[in-house]
Amino acid sequence: MITISIDPIIFNIGHFAVRWYSLILLIAIGIGIWLTAREAERRGFKKDDIYDAAIWIIVGGLLGARLFHVLDHWSHEYAADPIRALYIWEGGLAIWGALIGGLITGALVAWRRGWRFPKLLDAAAPGLVLAQAIGRIACVITGDAMGKPTDGPFGFAYTNPNVMVPQLGVYYTPMPVYELVINLGIFVVLWGLRKRIGPDGRLFLVYLTLYSLERFFLAFTSSYRIIAFGLTQSQIVAIFGLVISLIFLALIPRKLNKQSM
Questions:
Q1: pLDDT category, 261, cuts 50, 70, 90?
Q2: pLDDT per residue as tens digits for the range 117-150
Q3: 26 lies in a domain?
Q4: Tell me: the pLDDT tens digits for 176-223?
Q5: Which end of the chain is more exposed for a tag (fewer CB within 10 A), N or C?
Q6: Shortest CA distance to 21 belongs to which of 143, 182, 167, 170?
Q7: What is the 3-state secondary structure (H, E, C) of 121-175?
């Protein structure tokens, strides 16, 4: 059992607070974009084009991430003070929202530029999951996305009043740590497959399959609000993600076979 006393706020400049959450998120995004640009160049894209497109995709991802989080926590966190929904620097970003927002924006960018979207997705998959892993370090420091209270053998308790856990001094299941480790594992798998997995889009579908499984099962230890059928928002989206990825994984070989006939 571990007690964390780190202040999520690094320092203040007047009323403006520089937070670990924002700093680590920027680092995660930066590394993810760098790795995506490197992979995209190997697949025939221009690095400068990827960096330019990344700005729009990040904006779309952040908007989706915040929207999903606010909707999931509206009744007990934002309904009484709706303006706090805009305080993105305090933390509170839903990964599924980021993924969906980024996918929609990425599809629009690819369409406008005449890119093959599945090829772009494959280039982005390793960098995306690595960024997700790094981003979970921010959750550990700020107490965001922690699981249910636990008696052990592994839990995090917080003492600083600026953290996001419901109650100080209570040990919580460290979901972000589990996600960090699993996401790193997914990254290793994708990195090993990236040059030999075959048709465009398949690498991203492998990512979506593994990530959906991770989110579904880990959410049983979470304290997220139940939406329907005893499942959280994250689990419901994970089911859709898993079904979609498995369907497309099954269809891609058939499509190639038909084209080769």
A1: very low
A2: 999 999 999 999 999 999 999 999 999 888 889 9
A3: yes
A4: 999 999 999 999 999 999 988 878 899 999 999 999 999 999 988 887
A5: C
A6: 143
A7: HHHHHHHHHHHHHHHHHHHHHHCCCCECECCCCCCEEECCCCCCCCCCCCCECCH
Give how far Cα 246 sits from Cα of 142, 144, 209, 232, Å. Answer: 35, 31, 7, 21
* 215, two tokens: 């989110």
Question: Do the domain assignments include residue 63?
Answer: yes
Question: Can you read off the two tokens belonging to residue 201?
Answer: 């889009």
Domain count of the chain? 1
Q: For the stretch 219-239, what's the b/e string if a residue is b when 16 or more beta carbons lie within 10 angstroms of its beta carbon?
A: beebbbeeeeeebbbbbbbbe
Q: Residue 168: pLDDT above 70?
A: yes
Domain hosting 20: range is 2-186
Give the H/E segment covering residue 82. Answer: none
Q: Does residue 193 lie in a domain region?
A: no
